[in-house]
Protein: Toprim domain-containing protein
Amino acid sequence: MTTTARILAANAAAWDYWRWHATQADAWVSDYLAARGLRGTVAGQAPAGWARLVPTLTKRGFTEAELLDAGLAVRAGNGSVGDALRDRIVLPICDDASQIIGFTARRNPASDDADQPPAKYLNTTSTAVYDKSRALYGLDAKTTQRLARGATPVLVEGAFDAEAVRRAGADLVPLAACGTAITTGHLEALRAIDPDSVGRLVLATDADTAGQRAICRLVGLLTPEEVATVRVAELEPGADPADLVQQGRRTDLRAALVQQARTLVEVAIDATLAGYDLTSIEGSLAALRHVTAAVASQNSATLAQATTHLTHRLALVLDHDIVAGEMVDAITTSSSGDGK
Structure:
């Protein structure tokens, strides 16, 4: 079994190699970052070819077994060992001591239109030092200090979204789950730095179906106190933070993250109501009962937010007394179910 120290050393060596490749005459990384409005992002380039990194690092004293254990190499069906990341822009994922524990990488955009392009994004596989369900891109030593001092964490899906948020204001701390799956482990990592950090969270997932699902799942992972204070930045349909920066709209991105961010409760309710016919009494009542049952166990602040928002959204069909009555019934039922 490869030791943690050897995996960290292999990651550091791989990063040095990829950083060097990003400076070569045929590198495409700088142009790609500039085109996306992310000039200045520190990135590496994994060269094309089956085995470029592996032979380089084996010459530096790392064994193939160590590179496989580090997630830097893969073994083919014929037994040969090659690079896990090939022809990609690479960004490092660090721990709270700024040690590189893994990588996230995007394919060369030149292959985007291929008949069968490689996966758009790849992350390091699980290793002794990297667990995607706990690691967050951007959560290094400096970020940890800022969060401990009360900075606002902004959780996004991808690393390039995080780099975009970095350009929206120095008071924001961008973090990426490197996917839509926000987990209990991610939240625990933030709480370990500052118990109140999750309560300050702004969520900026992509404005698509997967992003909406992520928002609804998050409600079940938070404490009642956090549910009442977490906010959501609503972006234009199909857009993400990186899109806005690429369009030169940093001011719009900041406004969405700060001034225009809505409560998690409101956004989650809207996502639920979208599945119902709110033009009919039957559909409105079904939607109302779905939402009230879902929020009945939350604290008083969240219940007040939910009641106000439901009253507003269902005003054309149901009056406030009906909404409030259904909320009370749901709370009573929830309390009875808890044995209270």
The chain has three domains: 4-123, 141-263, 275-337. The first strand starts at residue 44 and ends at 46. The chain has a mean pLDDT of 94. The longest helix spans residues 4-21.
